[in-house]
Amino acid sequence: NLELMKDLDKSCSKKGEELLQAQQQYVELAQEKLSRVRVVQNPDGSGPQLADDEGSSAKRKATEAFIPTTEELFDYTYQPELYRKIRKLQEECMQKSDEKVYVAQQAFELIDTQVQRLDDDLAEMEKLLQAAGSFDTGVTAKENDMAAAQPTPGSEWILAKVIHHDLNTGMYELADEDVESSNKIMHLPEGQVIVLYPVEKLRSGDTVFAVYPDTTSFYQATVVQAPRRQGGGGGGMSLVMVKFHDDADEAGVTHEKAVPLKHVMLPP
User: Fold this and answer.
1) How far is CA 44 from CA 68, 76, 243, 248, in A?
2) Rg (CA), the chain
3) What is the sign, positive or negative, of the torsion defined by CA atoms of 228, 231, 237, 241?
4) Strand 146-149 to 158-165 pairing
5) Pseudo-torsion of CA 70, 76, 79, 80, nearest 10°?
6) How confident is residue 65, by pLDDT bands cut at 50, 70 and 90?
7) What's the angle, vertex CA 167, arms to CA 162 and CA 171, rounded to 5?
């Protein structure tokens, strides 16, 4: 497709130059012809007319003021062969342009498909790295940052706040966000801690882990509506509408729940 685009560019550019030259030639011939124009009286007295040294003319009625119309000037300066050449070149340029647009659309769709595939592959790799505790978010954990913590290997993820992160040992000191927790302070390795940061490009149907409302525990959920900022201005909170798995009521209906984006993470 790219090679075809190059060929079409060259062809269209060449046709465009030919069209421009033909148009300039037409204008120059028209100007030359108009420079020879003069007003003469018809021998039969029927009225004045445009005439040049070659005898070409455009008649008008004697009762009208002599102001040539656009049609008269066009007829007077008309160059049939050159005009047909210009029209043909215009049609060819339009055809080449339409072909370029069609090929460009095909190329865009192909590239967009590849980019989407790369995004999906990167997302899968990110999940694998997060599960292995090797994912570098590019963000250094700071005091009071929110994180998902796994108190013991294989246990559920809970919401916690970073107290300190030792870069040398990789150990985290965290505070459980559950006020009723008996183990308020935890010391965990990096593999059992995921510092929370806004998840980008969430779409309807994505699987995530989110804090269930009125708890501090993460549960698996499906996004039903992309994040939206609540409240006016830039200070509103971004919320995500999700359906938690195994959360059906007595009637078997799973209701949507709003969860702050800051309490959502990709599956660990």
Assistant:
1) 20, 21, 95, 101
2) 38
3) negative
4) antiparallel
5) 80
6) very low
7) 55
The whole-number pLDDT of residue 263 equals 93
List all residues 6 or more positions away from 198 whose beta carbon is below 8 Å from its beta carbon: 238, 261, 262
State CA 43 to chain mean position distance. Answer: 70
Tokens 């927790």 — which residue?
Answer: 181
Angstrom CA distances, 65 to 61, 103, 114, stand at 9, 55, 69
Residue type, 263: H
Helix (H) or strand (E) holding 240: strand 238-244
More confident residue, 1 or 239: 239
Higher pLDDT, 73 or 174: 174
Say if residue 40 is exposed, middle or buried (CB neighbours under 10 Å; 0-12, 13-18, 19+): exposed
What are the helix (H) ranges across 132-244? none
Please report where in the chains the tokens 């004697």 appear, as a residue. Answer: 62
Please name the amino acid found at residue 211: V
> Which of the 8 DSSP states describes residue 217?
B
List own/partner pairs for 104-107 with CB under 8 A and 24 or more apart: 104/5, 106/1, 107/1, 107/2, 107/5
- Coil/strand/helix, residue 182: coil
